[in-house]
Amino acid sequence: MPFYNLIVLLILMQSLTLYEFNPGASTDNWVVVNDGVMGGRSKGSLILNEEGHGVFSGEISLENYGGFSSIRHRTDRIAVNDFSTVELKVKGDGKRYQFRIREGQADYYSYIQYFETRGEWQTIVIPLDSFYPVFRGRKLNLPNFRGKSLEEIGFLIGNKRRETFRLEIDYIRLGSD
Q1: How much is the average pLDDT of 36-64?
Q2: Phi-psi region of 41 (alpha: psi -120 to 50; beta: other; left: phi over 0)
Q3: Can you tell me the distance from the alpha carbon of 64 to that of 60, in angstroms, rounded to the nearest whole number?
Q4: Among 17, 19, 69, which Cα is nearest to 46's?
Q5: How do residues 98-149 score in pLDDT, each as one tens digit?
Q6: How many Å apart are CA 20 and CA 125, to the nearest integer?
Q7: Is the pTM of this model over 0.70?
Q8: Residue 13: DSSP 8-state
Q9: Within 10 A of 33 (CB to CB), how many other CB atoms are there?
Q10: Cα separation of 173 and 92, whole Å?
Q11: What is the spatial distance between Cα 124 and Cα 163, in angstroms, rounded to a whole number?
Q12: pLDDT of 3 higher than 60
C-alpha cells in the first residue's frame, strides 16, 4: 500500500461520519418531535437549504407547559468503542442547543450535552464521556455515557423562554483525540 493511501486510511479511521447533509441528502430519515406530545405549542422543522445544509428552525412557545423542539435520527447500532468525541459542524443563531445520543432505541432516556452557538460556522467537539443521562429534562442518577454503541442522534432546543431558533447543520461525526 503506498504511503499516501496509508495516511488517508489512518485519518479516516480516526473519524466516522454519522450524518452529513449535502445537496443530495434527504431529511426523510429525521423525525421532528415538538412539545405538542405534552400539549405544548412549539413548532420546529428540518429542511435542506440550497447549499445542502440541514436547517432546524422554528419557534418555541411556553404555552400549555411547552418549551422545546427536537429532531432525531435513528441509525443501525454503531459501535463507538474506538471513538472519544462527537464533532458537530453547525451554524447557529447565538442560542444554546443540546446534542443528544441514545445508546439503544428502546432506552427511555437520552444522553445529552449542551453547546453554545455564535452566529457563524463552528466545529464543536464534545467528549463522549461528558454526555449525561436525562429523561424529560431531568438529570438521572446514572453514569455518564460509557461509549459502547449508539442508535440515535439528535438536537433539541429548550431554553425555558419563548424564542425563534435556527441551526444549520453540515455534519455530525465521531472522532478520536
Answers
A1: 95
A2: alpha
A3: 12
A4: 69
A5: 999 999 988 999 999 999 999 999 999 999 999 999 999 999 999 999 979 9
A6: 16
A7: yes
A8: H
A9: 14
A10: 18
A11: 23
A12: no
The set of residues, in sequence order, having a beta carbon less than 8 Å from that of 99 and lying 6+ positions away, is 86, 88, 112, 113, 115, 126, 153, 154, 155, 172
Other C-beta atoms closer than 10 Å to the C-beta of 17 total 11
CA distance 88 to 85: 10
Among 110, 100, 122, 128, residue whose Cα is nearest residue 168: 122
Residue of 83, 155, 154, 72 lying closest to 117 (CA atoms): 155
C-alpha cell at 151: 442508535
Helices (H), the chain: 3-13
Residue with cell 447557529: 92
**Predicted confidence (pLDDT) at residue 12 exceeds the cutoff of 80:** no
Q: Which residue from 155, 169, 171, 173 is spatially nearest to 73, judged by alpha carbons?
A: 155
Place of cell 459542524: 89
pLDDT confidence bin for 10, thresholds 50/70/90: very low
State the Cα–Cα distance between residues 23 and 48, nearest whole angstrom: 8
